C-alpha cells in the first residue's frame, strides 16, 4: 500500500513545504538561520538542542500529509523491499535492496521507527541522522539502519 494516495500528492507537497517553513521560522526565532549546522563542538550543543526540539504547531492533517509525502519521496529515491521505515501513526514504506519480507511475517529484517517530528526534521535537513540517533530519537534494528546517505529529502 502506498504511503500517500496519488490524488493527495499536491496537497502532500504543500504540507511538507508548510512544515519546513514553520520549522525554519521556529529556528529563526531562536536565532538559528541555518538548519544544517552539525554538532561539532561544545559551542554548537545549544544550537543542536534547539534543532532537536523543533516541532511546529500545525494541524494534524498537515503533519499527516507531510509525513506521507516525504515517505513517498524516500520510497522513490530508494525503492526496494529490504528496510521498513515506520512513522506512526501515519505511514510505513519499504525501501532499499535486500532480503524481502518473510512470507509468514511480512516484516523485513531491517526496521526503522521514528516519531513524526523526528522524521520531518530529518527529511527537511533540520537535523542529521547522527544527531537524532545520538539523542535516542531513532529506533533501528538491522544491518541497514542508517538512512543518512538518503537525507535530507528537501531543503528547509
- Overall spatial form: globular
> Mean pLDDT, rounded to whole units?
88
| Annotated CATH architecture | 2-Layer Sandwich
Query: Within the CATH hierarchy, at the fold level, what is the topology?
Result: Nonspecific Lipid-transfer Protein, Chain A
Main sheet: strand order: 2-1-3-4
**Can you tell me the CATH class?**
Alpha Beta
The number of distinct structural domains comes to 1
Q: What Rg, in angstroms, do the CA atoms define?
A: 15 Å
Assign a percent range to the helix content. 25-40%
Percent strand: 5-15%
Number of DSSP strand runs: 4
Give the N-to-C terminal Cα separation: 28 Å
Q: What kind of sheet is the major sheet?
A: 4 strands, mixed
Number of helices: 5
Domain Bacterial SCP orthologue: 60-153
Protein name: Bacterial SCP orthologue domain-containing protein
Organism: Bifidobacterium tibiigranuli
Pfam family, one: SCP_3
Quick description:
InterPro entries: SCP_3 (IPR041629). The protein is α+β, with helices and mostly antiparallel strands.
Question: How would you describe this structure to a colleague?
Answer:
This protein is of the alpha+beta class. It has helices at residues 9-29, 45-52, 60-77, 116-123, 129-134; strands at residues 79-87, 91-95, 110-114, 138-141. The chain is 39% helix and 15% strand. It holds the Pfam family SCP_3.
Task: Detail the topology: elements first, then pairings.
Blueprint: H1 9-29, H2 45-52, H3 60-77, E1 79-87, E2 91-95, E3 110-114, H4 116-123, H5 129-134, E4 138-141
Parallel strand pairs: 1-3
Antiparallel strand pairs: 1-2, 3-4
Helix pairs in contact: 1-3, 3-4
Protein name: Bacterial SCP orthologue domain-containing protein
Organism: Bifidobacterium tibiigranuli
InterPro entries: SCP_3
Amino acid at each position: 500500500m502506498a504511503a500517500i494516495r496519488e490524488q493527495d500528492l499536491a496537497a502532500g507537497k504543500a504540507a511538507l513545504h508548510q512544515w519546513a517553513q514553520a520549522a525554519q521560522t521556529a529556528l529563526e526565532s531562536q536565532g538559528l538561520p541555518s538548519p544544517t549546522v552539525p554538532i561539532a563542538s561544545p559551542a554548537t550543543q545549544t544550537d543542536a538542542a534547539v534543532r532537536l526540539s523543533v516541532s511546529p504547531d500545525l494541524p494534524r492533517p498537515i503533519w499527516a500529509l507531510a509525513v506521507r509525502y516525504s515517505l513517498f519521496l524516500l520510497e522513490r529515491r530508494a525503492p526496494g523491499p529490504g528496510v521498513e521505515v515506520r512513522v506512526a501513526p501515519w505511514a510505513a514504506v519499504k525501501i532499499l535492496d535486500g532480503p524481502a519480507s518473510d512470507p509468514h511475517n511480512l516484516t523485513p529484517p531491517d526496521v526503522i521507527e521514528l516519531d513524526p517530528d523526528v522524521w520531518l526534521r530529518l527529511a527537511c535537513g533540520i537535523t542529521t541522522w547522527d544527531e537524532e540517533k545520538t539523542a535516542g530519537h531513532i529506533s533501528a534494528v538491522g544491518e541497514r539502519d542508517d538512512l543518512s546517505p538518503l537525507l535530507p529529502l528537501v531543503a528547509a
